[in-house]
Amino acid sequence: MNWINLARAWLTRTKKPFIFLSEYDQKLDYLSLDNLGLYIHIPFCAKICSFCPYCKTVYQKELADNYINALIKEIHLVSKQVGSKKQVTSLYFGGGTPCLCIDSIKKIIDAIKQYFIITDGIGIELHPQDLTEDVLKQLKQAQITKISIGIQSFDEKCLSFLGRKNELDILKLNNLLMKYPFETVSMDLIFGIPGQTFESLKKDFEIAFECHANHVAIYPLIEFSFYKPEQKTTLRQKRKLINKILDYCQQKGYKRTSIWTFSKDNGHYSSMTRQNFLGFGCSATTLLRNQFKINTFDVQEYINRINNNCLPTALTCRLTKRQRMIYYLFWTAYSTVINPQDFENYFGESLHKNYGFEFFLARVLGFLRKKNNIYYLTKRGTYYYYYFERFYTLSYIDKMWNILRKQSFPQKIEL
Fold first, then answer.
1. CB distance 198 to 241 below 8 Å
2. Of 117, 180, 227, 400, which residue is least crowded by CB atoms under 10 Å?
3. What is the extent of the structural domain holding 77?
4. Is residue 273 pLDDT above 80, yes or no?
5. Domain stops at, among 247, 263, 279
């Protein structure tokens, strides 16, 4: 048993693994849940990026049209059984490159609004090639309020390593974002690219905020099992880079809003830090009070399943209470703030009663500080969160996604 499994067993108080089975509930009980979010996955890309781990396929118009029809049907299948509209915090579109289906975005949102009242806005991921006047105009007409642009880097050498070309016209981008303003303009950057320096990474931040971004996400380049670059950046090099960036952002007055995100002027974009969420589309996940489920990665099988009036769920994990607590704490810690009262409101039990020793130990080790009965991750704590997240990603997510890429509906996975 490796240390990840030992940690899981200790924190969940059982040796029982996370067991995912080929089963699902045709009716999802989400009406009573607070802080519910929505996610929609559109898997089509003009070109496949080798470093991207998400479910994606090359765009074909006929396949995309069939997929959109199935996606809207899934929304109806899940939602019409409830019988009344549900208030949700947010709706996020991810991919893939959702704007390859730009003509369908408003139609999808209209279907969602038949069943849900969205209180905190709608966000969508964009490829830099999506930044045209026509696309931004259609997004505004569809009432999109937040955009996240997958820049990855403005540095030509870094882009070349990632298999991308620097085709972005910064002056044109500035003018477009001035003409079509959004509540949040987020730009995604990657750190840990071989050969990347602090100066080039700092330059990426400077350009992003100069280009009307009010939110920047900076993610580590993770070497998934399917991605085998000739060069790699060591964990020590990554830690040195991120520590310098943290100091730089603090000096500039940018607010840290999660492990990997920084903002100014109240910019906010996060599809992950939500207590419960419903996912629609292939590979989309759903997290409810006591279950986690994931849809098939196979686009055609997704369409076939929907056309047979069946949900496209590939696997479901029935979570024990302790497993659900750990999942809750892991993603709450991603925001760098843990409020014991929120935990108690959700589970009906005291955080200190369940994990008082662990939180005491985290404070002793310098991972957490406590102020007004709320816990905050320290700089040291955020690095070790990344360290744990990396092992979790490679030990759990990488394994599951590899299986789901090869099998549309696997019978069982133990993690």
1. yes
2. 117
3. 28-263
4. no
5. 263
